[in-house]
Amino acid sequence: MNGVEGFMYPNEVELVWSVLIVLYPYITGLVAGAFILASLERVFRVDAVKPTYRLALLTALSFLLVAPLPLQLHLGHPERSPEMYFTPHSTSAMAMFGYVYLWYLMAVLVFEIWLDYRREIVLRARRERGLLRLIYKIMTLGSDNISERSLHIDERVGWVVTLIGIPSAFLLHGYVGFIFGSIKANPWWSSPLMPVVFIFSAMVSGIACVMVIYMATSKLRGTTIDMRCVDTIAMYLFYTFIIDFSLEMLDLVHRIYEADESFRSLNFMVHTKLYFSHIVVQIGLGTLLPLVLLAITQVAKLSEMARKRTYALAGALTLIGIFAMRWNVVIGGQLFSKSFLGYTTYKVGMVTREGLPVAIALTLLPLLFLWVLVKLLPPWDDASAAHGATGD
Amino acid sequence: MSAFRDAGHLLRFAGLFVLAFIIFLVVRKVVVPKSFGEYGHYRGASIGEIAAHPAHFAGHQACDACHTDIADEKKGGKHAHVNCEACHGALGKHADDPASVTPAKLDTAVLCVRCHAASVAKPKNFPQVDAADHANGVPCETCHKPHNPALEAGGAK
Amino acid sequence: MNLSRRQLMILLPAAAIAWEHVLAGTPEAAPNYTMSEHWWSMLIDIPKCIGCGNCVRACQAENDVPDGRFRTWVERYHVSDENMMYPEVISPDGGKEGFPSVAKADAGKYFFVPKLCNHCADSPCTQVCPVGATFIAPDGVVLVDQKYCMGCAYCVQACPYGCRYIHPEKKVADKCTLCYHRITKGLTTACCEACPTGARQLVDLKNPNDPIHEFLRTHAVQVLKPQMATGAKVFYNELDGSVR
Question: Containing domain of residue C60, as a range?
Fold first, then answer.
């Protein structure tokens, strides 16, 4: 049969979760990670990362807007997805997605961004003309109160929202890990470590993503990169990455040492079908290499240029590595038979609804959203300072 | 009171939430199927819908009701517990309206070996033969009547 | 497929009417059947199975099962003395056309294992369904509401036995219904009807006269993957330890 080695239960031959389901935890991970980075400045008072605060929030929002799309496209009956809201099943981890997502989107991200940008929104609603004016007017929700006192209230409320946002971000992504970790039928997934690993890998990917986007946008806008900021981000990236890697290694060592009934089968899979994506890409290129690069920047005194290039390379490798990790979880978990007697093959479709072009489009879509958001609500310090000066 | 006025925009945001929640409740009331929750967290009416699917196998009780001669012939034989449709296939339509479908005549050369072809993988006590060796091309029904396959006393040897 | 606005205007009310029908439901099909009086399951007598594939064909004919997917299938195990826990298993096209003959025995033993949904009492598949589209009916049968299922396939992942699949045309979860449309009318399942050796027996655990009670008292009976604690209700007589 097509791509089957050994014995699969006949219904297992074709995978039911495609590359789109790989994208889903990847994208929500970026959201959660970007938000955690933003909270560093807001809650933990890490002033050095201030230049990326707003950018991180907008990045989180643009990725969050895309997060449900791969799920929606993968459903056999997308038109029935509102059932998740109307009749959520209390025993299903997946049923909570809708609510966690909406909570995170509206009560945390949109609210925090709105509070933070309210002054600019009101000023722009006064200044702009035509359609833009209407858009900003709607965004003010009809209140143009930007008195000292109201802004002070916004500041305090925003702080509380960020505080609530941190556990919410953990919830959003830890819950994605739970969707996999709670499936007792699948030994590759079933692990209480899964949500924790997902949270830390989310922070790693989100921090790397914002770092890369910040450096790229600075380059595009022709502004100088705040080295104190990226140095600090890289340091946080390094430390969270070490925790993430330790957790993943703990999981691995535990599996190898315990060597339960599934071990022989999974071990074989990692050495054959998953060798490239797991050992080479995820662990080698995507984890060890960036860790070494980041470690060098921590111990050695490098020139500014060398640091920038190292960070950019390490960031890009990290993003690839975390994607490979999601791939290995989602696809790897379906390549072996639950009889532990065989393996199947996954072929990415091309012209199907769940094919490669769709996956690539969905990966690029958040960047488009980010571009629009950045145009509407510029996150740059210089831009807002200019508005303060010229906004009459 | 000015503190309240300066927080007015927050109330507007909260108002959006309340409005969305009310719309959600109304829509929910309308679109959730009536029988949902009748027996548990599912659409109770779906049980009846699944039970209403048409059956394709008539069941041996239906066969025996008309074909009493065959039922008698099978009785006491080795195939007494092999149901008619195990060999003849699904004949629910024939049972509903005998004139509509006439069951096809079966080819014993194909049919018998489906079960009785020799294979070490089969249970030892199950009667099995190497067809070529056993009958030398003679059709099975020459010696064995499918409905009661034991060789008759003094029959073909 | 391109829909013009006009076509859409026609289709939308049609969809609304179809949804109305889903809302209202259809009346109970078998009025004499009381769900609370039954607790259905099945007995598989492994020493009786000859691997003819009758059950697989019957199931496909009865339930319109798409090619390459199986509500029931048959596996053939070959267990050698040296490697008891790593059997050699085949199931060509689900065993639909039987199995190739084995002329001479290699070392070890052979046997057939018919598989189907275990209609678990603590089923992991119904647990994970996010919308309540699959459920354990009051008579113990695990069913899928195909008008409500959105096709997320989470249940397919959750089943330890590989009994579920996404129907390639209907795009919803599909699985063995234990021929619910038959057993509620007093018939047995299609696979049991077609089994020539009585290797499969429909069982009603709530029926005190069901021979299953005597059978369970006098035989060594197991379920598949008991370590999964799914409350599986398909009982296997003389199940070998290598079966998974």
Answer: 39-237
